[in-house]
Amino acid sequence: MRMKHLLFVLFLSCSLYAQKNNVFKSIIKEAYDSIPSLGSILVIKNNSLICEEYFNGANPETSFNMFSVTKSVVSALAGIAHDKGLLPDVNTPVLKILPQYDTDTSSHKKKMTLKHLLSMQGGILWYDNSPPKLVNDDQITTYLYQPIECPPGTKFKYSTTESHFMAVALAACVRTDLKTFGDSTLFNYLGIEISNWPTDKQGRRLGGSELKLKPGDMIKFGLLYLNEGKVNDKQVISKSWINESTSEQAILNEWDVLPGANGYGYYWWRRKTNGHQAFVASGYGGQLICVIPDLKTVIVTTCFANDKNRGRSEIKRLHGFIDKIINASK
Length: 330
Known about the structure:
Low-confidence stretches: 6-19
Strand content: 15-25%
CATH class: Alpha Beta
């Protein structure tokens, strides 16, 4: 009787696993059918890779333009620099770090801090979809020439140029190229080789977009945050910076492509998924690193930036499939 009971339990377990696996495969197929530009979906749960699927000719060696996921990488580098005492307190005015740009008498702009830039609360009137003509071929000069919309720190306003401003200030603090700094303090520990990180006209790494990563690199980066800044036994980023940068630093209760939005950190989006708190590195067209700490889960998606990509709407679709994946993997 005991043997029969054990066989029954084993059969039941296998049956439930098969059912769950079939549901999982069905969700992945639905995502592929719904998103023609889909490149990959990877899922890690409890340190095990439970899904690694590639589409439309992609494979583990395919590099994708991260677009705004680049911002989250800059956030990580800022944290490392802060831990090392190279980046000053986040309440430091940014123009004290870059005095060459302090040419405006506006007291508001002089009060703009690193924290304001990191949390997209610089207060300058800016629209990413219709940026003004470059002044002196310099993104930062152009940004600072724009009028003040509100006092710094009072309103979330998405700005890729603002994050580039932060990256330039960070490079000034670490006194080297951001890729060089990143290689020695972050990427090498993660086993990531950065082959493509473009620069602006002044030769400075772009802080808001264009970094290229492979899906596996994205998983490694997400795991770093899931494990509170640790890689194996090495504390690469302090736990305090991980917590601070993924906590609500700017109020964001609604965002058109982020269901369940509940705040913005330091270049990390926050949302609730099936009642679980998640933080997300998000790039245009569907580049996502979604970290759900209490489920010990990281979900990565990529999409090709081709004529089949429907832009921002792909992000919202993918969050819907992330919700389904989370339910299926519980």
